[in-house]
# Entry
Amino acid sequence: MATETIAATEVGSYFVSNYPPFSQWTRENVPEIDEAFEREPDRSVPMGVYLHIPFCRKRCRFCYFRVYTNQNAKAIEDYVQALLKEAESISRKPAVQGRSLKFVYFGGGTPSYLSSKQLRSLRERIGQHIHWDQGAEVTFECEPGTLSLEKVQTLKEIGVTRVSLGVENFNDAILEENGRAHLSPEIFRAYDWIRQTGFPQVNIDLIAGMIGETDENWTRCVEKAAEMEPDNITIYQMELPFNTLIAKDMKEHGISSPVADWPTKRRWMSEAIDYLATRGYQVSSGNELVRNLDTDHFQYRDNLFRGSDILALGVSSFGHFQGVHYQNLDRIEEYQKAVDEGRSPINRALRPTPHQLLIREFVLQMKEGRVSAATFRDKFGVDVREEFSEPLRNQEAAGYLTVDGDEITLTRKGLLQVDSLLHEYFEPQHRAVRYT
Ligand SMILES: C[S@@+](CC[C@H](N)C(=O)[O-])C[C@H]1O[C@@H](n2cnc3c(N)ncnc32)[C@H](O)[C@@H]1O
Ligand code: SF4
# Structure
């Protein structure tokens, strides 16, 4: 049976970003990742790093990330020092030594919350421990109101190649109601600085389904995004995970969901794809549109979806190394204490079975809208059309995808709700597991 669609936007997460689900990773499995760092690596596998900056000016009402607001300058500096210490310690691991970073991702929270001085120091000192490839893709997430021309120039100076700006919406009343720290003038100001400075790739994030969204406003929002001509536009459909302020409010006050239902959000997403196609954008995944599919690559995503080695740096960061999943401690005090005392901050891990690694790469690549069976035959020696014959047949019959020779291609209908389709490829024991 194909998954039933859930109409109202109730509390819960549907977005699939890994497999097996995070709730299956345990502290008891941490020795698996310790061992993976000691073992001789496959040096042909690309290696990158995800670096988490957990600070924000304000907590958005819809946000589910581990973030801290109102931290003083000393707390932030202490955190930067802990990151540097963690980087140094990881660089000494036998499986990391002698390898260089092909991609770097500064995520958050809000990396652009850090000062130019701290950013230069991170770049310089991490580079002293782990070599960054000349051509490394360096992605950097920004909240518009945290930027200045000087900070944008610092990003260029430290080698950022892909600036990602959290725009979310252009309507000030909507931005305010959803708890964003910025309003629209800050978006345009920041965007001008980014353009003026010049980066190989600029992405803007939008969310379909913010509280207060309407048909007319969404149309204007997508038109404005196209007018800005970024290389990449990412559109998320609003989710309400358990740890968001909105979910908390709904529970405490017994109110119904203030967010548009799923069919409406999917229609908005679909209209955005249609309109952006007239402005030269092509679909590169269920969330992303790019100007040029052949040249606008997103190394971090492509590597994440294909099992490359990703070192996790920072509180609550996720990594994947030599086939083992892991995550750092997710409270800043505990993370910093561990690093300060020279202990590993890794809190939970899981070594997926070869079959689980196959499922992981298959479901993540489904999010790109197309999967080639040939790739999986070459890498895993498995024909995914046979391995997943039942869900593929059901989802094809329901109009979510087509299978033509080796090519599995999602239809528009499938792409708009791809995350809800993926659980059917999971092992039975993980299908109903809460996804945190
Ligand atoms: C870490 S933030 C980006 C950088 C910066 N913190 C900011 O918000 O501008 C990553 C993105 O996740 C998306 N996001 C956060 N919470 C979400 C939710 N509940 N549903 C859908 N998308 C969400 C937003 O589009 C946000 O830009
Ligand atoms: S969406 Fe971005 S700015 Fe808002 S709380 Fe989350 S990480 Fe911070």
Remarks:
- The first helix runs from residue 30 to 38.
- The mean pLDDT is 95.
- The chain is about 40% helix and 20% strand.
- The CA atoms of residues 373 and 406 lie 5 Å apart.
